[in-house]
Write a structure and sequence with these properties.
mainly alpha
């Protein structure tokens, strides 16, 4: 697993954790940040799977 893939999955995992914490604690800002992180992580994964350059770079090694 490359470091970029680890970063994307960490972003998705952090988003899910913040969603759960925000839902349980009923804190809207944490819920919102979790949604944003989850969406950004999913977009990066989708772009990576399509072979698109992310951040101006096609490869990060």
């Amino acid at each position: 697993m490359s470091s970029l893939t680890k970063g994307r999955s960490a972003l998705i995992t952090l988003g899910i954790i913040l969603l759960i914490i925000g839902f349980i604690a009923k804190v809207a800002i944490i819920w919102t940040i979790g949604i944003i992180l989850l969406v950004v992580g999913l977009i990066l994964v989708a772009m990576g799977m399509l072979g698109r350059a992310v951040g101006g770079r096609r490869h990060y090694f």
